[in-house]
Amino acid sequence: MKITEETLLEKEGYRLHILPSKKYKTITIVAKFKAPLKREGITERALLPHVLQKATNNHPNVRSLQSAFENLYGTALSSDGSKKGENHVISFRMEVVNEAYLNDQEPILEEAVQLFNEVLFDPKTEGEGFDSSIVDREKQTLEQKITSIKDDKMSYANMRLMDHMCKDEPYALHVHGYLEDLETITSEKLYAYYKDMIAKDMLDVYVIGDMDQKAIEKLTDQYFSRKGSTNADDDQVSVTKEVKEAREVIEREEVNQGKLHLGYRTYTKFGDDDYYALQIFNGIFGGFPSSKLFMNVREKHSLAYYAASRFESHKGLLLVFSGVDPKDFDQAKSIILEQMDAMKNGDFTEDQVEETKEQVIHQLQETMDNANGMIEVLYHQMLSGAEMPANELIDNIRKVTKEQVVQMAKKIELDTIYFLTSKEGGES
Description:
Layout: E1 7-11, E2 14-20, E3 26-36, H1 42-52, H2 62-70, E4 76-84, E5 87-97, H3 108-121, E6 125-126, E7 129-130, H4 132-148, H5 153-165, H6 179-182, H7 187-200, E8 202-209, H8 213-224, E9 247-252, E10 258-265, H9 275-287, H10 292-300, E11 304-312, E12 317-324, H11 329-344, H12 350-368, H13 371-384, H14 390-398, H15 402-411, E13 413-421
Parallel strand pairs: 2-8, 9-13
Antiparallel strand pairs: 1-2, 3-5, 3-8, 4-5, 6-7, 10-12, 10-13, 11-12
Helix pairs in contact: 1-4, 3-8, 9-12, 9-15, 10-11
């Protein structure tokens, strides 16, 4: 699999990543702002992307800004916030048609980048704050989002697992913020936080598509440079906690289906030598429909509505999710723990290892076929300091042996068993 090389350039207040590719008829630009996860300001960070996308001083309302993007051949802008280990990343993504494919050769790209610049660096303000009507509306929307997490019992159970498992670690912080903060956030307070973020966050700008590198550099220098910003990498290293004893937490709510979630510590992160073995381990254990969790907990014993696992590659966690009948808690828990023991004992075949390698590679290739997916892979690598070409990534997956998967399994330690059950069921 051939992927064009990334050019990384240190610029004034940002890092520019250029990825020339003739695969796409669009040009994708992604700006990523990174800061350490902290309790103070996390709700402001959750709110900011939504406020910024609503209006600029040049396009002072939602309709005007949306029309400006739509007039550029349907250029799309989206944003979100996420946790990468102990860091908080806000991403803004824009996809614009490549003007080389248009008949009239309009300067679409420059106009789109100028709009992007307005969204990031010239949002609509009133005095010393944002437009208060926009802030109030987005606060209401965020309040509904935070409140609705409790209605999505799978997300809620995962959040509660992190609350218990990562207590006193930055990773436990809620990426969507906290209800109690919303009341105190004013348009002035949010604007002050925004100015701090714009000045101090680590900014990476990715551009992928069929383009002239010099022209892109000129464009990004004009619209993304941050005078006075050192763009220093204030990276917060992940806390690695030793597990002394696994604990069990049972919480009761009005639920029909119990949520049995288990949290393990892998002691392996993206960039570590045994990271590839972790990918194969997870595939066999609970990552695919052919996995042990799916086949044993769900198919063979019909104990779960779903059963799967995933790992957090910057924090070193492995998470198991299952939906079970409250009365089946003990049996489901035993069977999940048995699957982990089976992995530690090498109770899987060489064929399963080979089959899982192909599934993992196929998944990776699918991700990298998409411009945003490609950028995520490269950003992951950069955060971990383990950059490598795509073909090397795939070679490393292919080299994983069954013995390495067993060694990986033996490193993994159970930290917390969390069960969200009905008010009357699920006693252990």
